[in-house]
Amino acid sequence: MTGNWLILETSGRVGQVGLARGGAVVRTVSLDDRRRHARDLAGTVSSVLEAEFLRPVELNGIVVGRGPGSYTGLRIGLMSAKALAYALNCELRAVETFAAIAVQAPPQATSLWVIADALQRHVYAQPYTSQENEWRPAGDLRIEPVAAWAARLRAGDWVSGPGVTEYAERIPRIGSLVPEADREPRIESIFRVGMRSQMLARPELFALEPLYLRGSSAEEKKTSEPCR
Questions:
Q1: Contact (CB, 8 A) for 51 and 75
Q2: Any idea what the CATH number is for the domain that residue 119 is in?
Q3: Could you tell me the pTM of the whole model?
């Protein structure tokens, strides 16, 4: 991945666009913090390319975060990445956002949980373990009540992710918290994980969906309403 790579991360409150050249991130721009990704994303991508004197056809590939996270943000980011990769006939690599957050953990951590708010007092939670200086999943990503997840914490575990701020008071003191600055995915981390991810084949590109594990809020509300 030593060419020109566009990097999109829209899982959180503040979306990000980055560009990597020669194997290193050279530019990062944050989107409007009011989460208007649909309005800002295309224009920001264009301005990033212009700032680096690149045309879209000079991109070798796109790396995109696929969640979990904001349902609307993820769909905008993934649809944009898929459309660009298809139109430019370039590579597309999808990165699990929690994997990018995991690589930002302190070097002394060996056992880590990454969590995010899943609404209604539930969290997205996934355990990771450090093996040979690389963070690997130690279990599946799942949604569960925050109390049930907190009961599974063990002495020596570290906790990271955007859910820490939301549920800090529910995290037992046996867990160590990753510093706040490292709990949100950075463009450099998305790119780092993307470097070791597989390129998506064309059928996989079309089938790519956000890692959300549940329907949108509107879909859940509709299914919970009684038939009339």
A1: no
A2: 3.30.420.40
A3: 0.90
